[in-house]
UniProtKB/TrEMBL annotation:
PANTHER family (UniProt xref): ACYL-COA DESATURASE, DESATURASE 1, ISOFORM A-RELATED
CDD domains reported in the protein's UniProt record: Delta9-FADS-like (cd03505)
Protein name according to UniProt: Acyl-CoA desaturase
Transmembrane feature ranges: 12-31, 37-59, 150-169
Keywords: Fatty acid biosynthesis, Fatty acid metabolism, Iron, Lipid biosynthesis, Lipid metabolism, Membrane, Oxidoreductase, Transmembrane, Transmembrane helix
Membrane topology: Multi-pass membrane protein
Length: 274
């Protein structure tokens, strides 16, 4: 499939409408009367819960790469947090991520960075994604789990339920900041890992793709910006490998390990799995 063919894929209008509505809702938060410092604080906390604990720690390092293990109830909690990021269901997300690692920056990679920043950042998801037909091949470990299936089917109603709770607590400003602003921030932080870290930064290892270590993306995404390290050692729970490569998610994993909740933590050394 050529670049031109890929970009002529049919547009997924429901995705365009959803993402567009979320961005419009976020802009509404900045209208007079809707700004609240408490709303901003809420957005930041929920960004960490859904983007940090959910996507980065849960969907990515725990489930997609199985770089460590936690009790099943805790895994489900992290997967639930990721579901509230409204980036599709966990099975869909994990399957596409595993596909990306198999074909990183090749033409069949859904967000191949060789097709440009816009395409790898978000343009690819506004079209039909051919790799979706292969999801079952890459998610055999979770596809039949009833909890994962529930989150796959009800991620949108769960978001609406969260919005209702926030409305009851703080009215529309809490909904605007806790749902719409927070989702926009989580979206673009996640998407920067697909785009910016395949274009900006430095390479520490040969990963046979365009992945880079980008410090500012690492700060925005709880350590995901050390992307060249990750592509070189996909199984590693730690992405920031140098002492100065700050990796907030690695600190969280170490905290879980100290509490006896994280086991078999994998690192890029032969004798470090425990």
């Amino acid at each position: 499939m050529t670049i031109a063919t890929q970009r002529k894929l049919p547009i997924s209008w429901h995705v365009v409408a959803l993402i567009g509505a979320v961005h419009v809702g976020a802009l509404m938060a900045f209208l007079p009367g809707n700004f609240r410092w408490s709303g901003l604080a809420l957005a930041i906390v929920l960004h960490w819960v859904t983007g940090g604990l959910g996507i980065t720690l849960g969907w990515h390092r725990l489930v997609s790469h199985r770089s460590f293990q936690v009790p099943k109830w805790l895994e489900y909690f992290f997967v639930f947090c990721g579901t509230l990021s409204m980036q599709g269901g966990p099975t869909w997300w994990v399957g596409l991520h595993r596909h990306h690692h198999l074909y990183s920056d090749q033409n069949v990679d859904q967000h191949d960075s060789n097709k440009g920043f816009w395409w790898s950042h978000m343009g690819w998801m506004l079209h039909e994604v051919p790799a979706l037909k292969d999801i079952a091949r890459y998610t055999k470990d979770i596809a039949n789990d009833p909890v994962y299936r529930f989150f796959d089917n009800y991620f949108l109603p769960l978001q609406i339920a969260l919005g209702l709770v926030l409305y009851l607590i703080g009215g529309w400003p809490f909904v605007l900041w806790g749902i719409f602003v927070r989702l926009v921030l989580v979206y673009h932080c996640t998407w920067l890992v697909n785009s910016a870290t395949h274009m900006f930064g430095y390479k520490s290892h040969e990963s046979h793709d365009n992945s880079r270590n980008c410090w500012w993306v690492a700060l925005l995404t709880y350590g995901e910006g050390w992307h060249n390290n990750h592509h070189a050692f996909q199984y590693s729970a730690r992405h920031g490998l140098k002492w100065w490569e700050f990796d907030m998610t690695w600190i969280m994993i170490r905290t879980l390990q100290a509490c006896g909740l994280a086991k078999k933590v994998k690192l890029p050394m032969a004798d470090s799995s425990r």
